[in-house]
Amino acid sequence: MTSVTVSRIGSDPDALEEFYREHVGSIQGFIARRVDDSHLVADLTAEVFLAAIDSAHKYRPGKGTPAGWLYGIARNVVADERRRLVRAMTANQRISGRALVEPDDLSALDDRIDAEAQSRRLYEAMDRLSEAERAVLELVALDGLSVRDAAAALRIRPTTARVRLHRARKTMRDHLDPRVPAIVAA
């Protein structure tokens, strides 16, 4: 395979297929000598060729053969996997033998979930608002701005801000307490 073909594997499916067929066996062997899980060998082989596709434009024939370049990529992929495994084993060792959540902690979490139920209902109601209505409501109700200051912050007229705030509050009220009858104008 020529270097011209290597540079084309990122954009030419035929060049990629030729390159893959020529090198897949040797790359699988390289990885299989270092990894003892067949699924992982297959995954890492795929990663090698994906990395080759992504970096094909960087291949320089004067720096080595296509096979040597591909082996360099494979070496990096295997090294990355080993580092990932070491991090995972270290994390597992640090937590092994320890309960991640004690029964008292679970009870406290249940209490917290119950306490936050009203907040979840508020967020659900706020999701029903338009972006414009939500912006005014947040500035007034959460940030404590006056309607006039909220209007200035949003670069709208105060009258527009009041209308949006009124609509937002009505939507919130209807969602949070549907038992409250709506006031019908005569």
TrEMBL record:
Residue ranges constituting the RNA polymerase sigma-70 region domain according to the UniProt record: 19-85
Pfam assignment, any one: Sigma70_r2
Signal peptide start and end residues: none
Keywords: Sigma factor, Transcription, Transcription regulation
Statement: the UniProt record of this protein carries the keyword Transcription: yes
Keyword Transcription: yes
Positions of the RNA polymerase sigma factor 70 region 4 type domain: 120-172
One GO process term, biological-process aspect: DNA-templated transcription initiation
Top-rank taxon, per record: Bacteria
Any GO MF annotation of the entry: DNA binding
Family: Belongs to the sigma-70 factor family. ECF subfamily.
Protein name: RNA polymerase, sigma-24 subunit, ECF subfamily
Organism per entry: Stackebrandtia nassauensis (strain DSM 44728 / CIP 108903 / NRRL B-16338 / NBRC 102104 / LLR-40K-21)
Lineage: Bacteria, Bacillati, Actinomycetota, Actinomycetes, Glycomycetales
